[in-house]
Amino acid sequence: MDLSRYSDDLLLNKAELVEKLKTEPAIPTLKVALTHLSKELDQRFIKGTPIRSLVCGRAWAMDMLIQSIWARFTWKNPDTVALIAVGGYGRGELLPKSDIDLLFLFETEKDIDDNVESLQSFITLLWDIKLEVGHSVRTINACIAEAVADVTVTTNLMESRTLVGNDDLRESITEAASPLNIWPSQDFYKAKMNEQAMRHRKYNETEYNLEPNVKTGPGALRDIQNIGWVAKRHFGDDSLQDLVERNFLTDAEYHELIEGQDFLWRVRYALHMNTGREEDRLLFNLQEQVADLFGYVEREGQLAVEHLMQDYFRQVFKLRALNIMLLQHFDEEILGDKTKEQAVIQLNSRFIVIDGYIQVTEDNVFQRTPSALLEIFVLCAQTPEVKDIKASTLRLILASHRLIDGHFRQDLRNITFFMELLRSPMGVSTNLRRMNQYGVLGLYLPEFGKVVGQMQFDLFHAYTVDAHTLLTIRNLRKFRHKSNTKRFPIATKVVQQLPKVELIYIAALYHDIGKGRDSDHSIEGAIDAKHFCVRHRLSDWDTELVTWLVRNHLLMSMTSQRKDISDPEVINQFAQLVGDSQRLDYLYVLTVADIYATNPNLWNSWRASLLKQLYESTKTALRRGLSNPVEKDEWISQTKAKALALLIEEGFTKEDFFALWDNPGDDYFLRETPENIAWHSRAIASHGKNVPLVLLKETNTAASYAGGTQVFVYAPDRPYLFTDIVTTLSNLNLAIQDARIMTSSTSHFSLDTFIVLEEDGTSIGDNSERLLEIQRQLLLAIQDPDSISITHRRISRQLKHFQVPTEITISNDSINPKTIVEVVAADRPGLLADIGRCFKEQNLILQNARISTLAEHVEDVFFVVNQNGEPLHSTEEVENLQKALTKTISEALER
Predict the structure, then answer these.
(1) What is the pLDDT of residue 718?
(2) 247-266: per-residue pLDDT in tens?
(3) Which of 492, 544, 634, 683 is deepest in the core (most CB within 10 A)?
């Protein structure tokens, strides 16, 4: 920004400050001036003063302050020194806690030595008044040498301006660091593109991070600056407005960039003001503060913070699209070899491909044939030679949004093109993502446009609704490739059997589209999906399947995670709801793709095994026929036979296990897999069936799974064994993801399985020392419970922020004599151990449990009895347990 014409004595009166510094102590005087400056700017910000005025005003006021301080010191040979503003400060842009980057430029080393005392005193004074100063002291030659070696230094020099001293010195390094001497525009462009690529990779190449960085994230302020840097280096332009005059940027694009920059500056200002530090991350707790400051309110089923973040994501989404388009323009201008003969492929009268970039044959193609706005994405999918869309054509697409209206959506040509894309053998997810990035998808499907940038304020959903939806479709496409067989063995097989694969893409497109409304999003989505199917001329059968999938897309995950899928009755009920094998196939692949796209950390081999078990059991039930359900005894016999076959392959005999298998109850063979039973049986037979045992193994060794470690505990049952085990695991800084608790009614041995991760969510892996430590501590806890100490661990910043209402439901099992305790609460380190101790203090014995950790909250089910082995009978007992659990969980949350 040009500060030469800026002046605002209400912010800082330089003349008055200089006079005060002559008679009053410098540090308190300057601190008062800075405090006044910050308060005045903050008040203006709160009142809604345009952000550019504030950003520019702070930089101007800082100029006045620094010049006043400079005048207090004696500088020998003043023509040999210059104080230069660089970086953001050099651009004339300062946010409340931005670094004030200064370059002390001297002609020679001798000049530095002559002024070293004044220099040190000047810098010390800046620090004493608490300015966030970044400084360097250089000679002209040293500065040029650094610029040659580092493109970042060159970039800073490009935006430099002299605050005080000899401006000829700055001019000399600016000339020496010009594109004619170092970093020609081609090399500078490549270096900046590499910087941007590395920066974007740091944020997983997505604008949609739960706690985005407004300065350096994809689509954020740095992306706008990158456009300006490349333009300045190549053309010598000082502002984005100059690009409009060169016809490199349209007026509409310029205003989008400025509008986006203003929005991000406002957010960044609020972050700095509220935290009192240079905080550029929109952390969860700060999101709520900024939403409140900006006047957002809860409406239409969305929290105020969710409205703020949707606006944020939509802004950075548009800015990244502009960044991509404009930098591709620069690529063609700066790196393009206009003498090289170009490979041209004529696709039709509207489109050609030149050197891998598809482009229109004439600038009026979209005006003349609006359906070409969809056709281009179909051609991208169907033409292997296309690597991207040419920047000039992207600009025409962005400028043609108004053509996508109600008439466009009902046009049979466009309906045909969209279905043709969904049926394409290649490029479906890539081009749906392109359509979304360039605003076409949300206009063609307005219901989808409403969820663009929409986030859910929790840790469970890692992406916005639109990003999650497109990731779900990408996962479905991945299932078609053999390279994913190891990670998704069933899904890769099942997806090949789907008779109409486009139907699963439509279901994925609509499964979460009802989010953010006041009613059930599954029902809302099913209504929208039906309208889509009717508009796109799908058959009644196809329409019914798609709407059923959308309405029931959570059915399989909920059943596998919240119900006992080892119970044949649960399987039969689920099979009744599904109805036939084809629906099961569609639902299974949609469920897997959905979970993996919700949050990759949720998909581990433990959850994979639950879905596999539910899928295969339901498949068997459907093959038998719904009128001929699997009986419990048959299920157990099949499981035993499979486990025995595995053991016989290893040289064991039937007799080795018949006595052993008489001990566990039916639940064990209903709930465990044949592979686990074989693993347990082999170890117990080797150690002796009356010897406590702790086994550990990775649930899956594939790194892509982030699978948990399976901990199997075989020990004499006693009251509070579960509490002792989970307390020990908690003390070991392990996070329990799931648990299966079973007790043999004949041998009185407990057979407990826990799935654990390290506290930070990573896998233990094959760390032999860590595994041995876990095994040793658990065996000690089993044999000597008095040795167990209770360690309370700190709650992470993210977990501490989310307020999940605690829900405790207590009821008696209508079939088995047990009391069922259901707990929904915010997750906290050691919470399960706290609940276990609560049961112990209430003299209750845990007989079974289902543990499920879902990002920031838990959904756990416990089956307990009293000391006599009976369920709770009196209202007083239930109320006492309810109060005790509520108190225990509240105390855990407050730690």
Answers:
(1) 82
(2) 888 999 999 999 999 999 99
(3) 492
Backbone torsions φ then ψ of 684, nearest 5 degrees: -65, -40
Neighbours of 361 (CB within 10 A): 13
The residue with greater pLDDT, 202 or 414, is 414
Name the phi and psi angles at 628, rounded to 5.
-130, 65
Taking all residues of the chain, what is their mean pLDDT, rounded to a whole number? 89
Neighbours of 776 (CB within 10 A): 11
User: Please, which pLDDT band fits residue 894 given cuts at 50, 70 and 90?
Assistant: low
List of residues 6+ apart from 623 with CB closer than 8 A: 581
Percentages helix, strand, coil for the chain (3-state, rounded to 5) are 55, 10, 30
Question: Is residue 843 packed enough to be buried (19+ CB in 10 Å), middle (13-18) or exposed (0-12)?
Answer: exposed
Handedness of CA 864, 721, 858, 491 (dihedral sign): negative
Give the tokens for residue 32.
Answer: 């008062």
Tokens in use for 804? 């999940």
Question: Tokens at residue 331, please?
Answer: 């690529």
How many residues belong to the chain? 895
Backbone angles phi and psi of 184, in degrees to 5: -55, 160
The helix-helix angle for 412-422 and 372-382 (nearest 10°) equals 20
Instruction: Considering only residues 148 and 209, tell me which one the structure prediction assigns the higher pLDDT.
Output: 148
Structure tokens at 294: 């900006």
For residues 305 and 293, is the Cβ–Cβ distance under 8 A? no
280 by DSSP, 3-state: which?
Answer: coil
Position of tokens 């903050």? 42
**Where do the H-state alpha helices sit in 369-464?**
372-382, 391-399, 406-410, 412-422, 428-437, 440-444, 446-449
**Maximum Cα–Cα distance across the chain:** 101
| pTM for this predicted structure | 0.83
Query: First and final CA of the chain: distance in angstroms?
Result: 48
Angle (nearest 5°) at CA 41 between 36 and 45: 150
463/469 Cα distance (integer angstroms) = 9
How does 142-155 read in b/e, with b if 16+ C-beta sit within 10 Å? bbbebbeeebebbb
Q: pLDDT band for 198, please (50, 70, 90 cuts).
A: very high
| 457: alpha, beta or left? (left if phi > 0; alpha if psi -120 to 50) | beta
Q: Give the confidence band of 19 by pLDDT, cuts at 50, 70, 90.
A: very high
Where helices occur in 115-165 by DSSP H, the ranges are 116-128, 140-149, 151-158
**How far apart, in whole angstroms, are the C-alpha atoms of residue 780 and residue 672?**
26
- Please compute, for residue 540, the number of CA atoms within 13 A of its CA located in the half-sphere on the CB side: 0
Give dist(CA 518, CA 157) in Å, integer.
53
Query: How far, in Å, CA of 352 to CA of 434, rounded?
Result: 18
Residue 537 φ/ψ region, left for φ over 0, alpha for ψ in the -120 to 50 degree band, beta for the rest:
left
Task: Report the candidate in 665, 657, 699 with the shortest Cα–Cα distance to residue 682.
Answer: 657
The CA distance from 450 to 585, in Å, is 30
483 exposure class (CB count in 10 Å sphere: 0-12, 13-18, 19+): exposed
pLDDT score at 701: 42
Contact indicator for 848, 818 with CB cutoff of 8 Å: yes
273-305 pLDDT, tens digit each? 999 999 999 998 899 999 999 999 998 778 899
* Positions of E strands within 182-274: none
**Pair 185, 217: CB distance under 8 Å:** no
Question: How, if at all, do strands 133-139 and 100-106 pair?
Answer: parallel
